[in-house]
Amino acid sequence: xxxxxxxxxxxxxxxxxxxxxxxxxxxxxxxxxxxxxxxxxxxxxxxxxxxxxxxxxxxxxxxxxxxxxxxxxxxxxxxxxxxxxxxxxxxxxxxxxxxxxxxxxxxxxxxxxxxxxxxxxxxxxxxxxxxxxxxxxxxxxxxxx
Length: 145
Description:
- By secondary structure, this protein is mostly helical.
- It contains seven helices and no strands.
- The mean pLDDT is 85.
């Protein structure tokens, strides 16, 4: 009798999608919208022609940061502190940060008030990473993973 050949990449991707769907249940769009305005309202005012695009991109990057943090929650469940879990995801986090910062630079390179933009982008993404991490850790503790 022949066994079934499994494609492990496909199985891993399926598990990742299921995990991301569960993680997104903990996220509300109103929370993202509030966060976008809190962090980027002054930058959005400088690019009125692209304000809606800016909000949408901020929301997308919030989702990505949240999912990245969420994927690290299991390490916290098994005893790793948050800083070590963040260190595991640093390459992905900084790649995401670079893309996010480049997006903003595309819309406003001539504005001198964009000086602290990189730090704003970093703190915004890190805040969403922490939210995702904490939501995932909570799910792991409640055995909802």
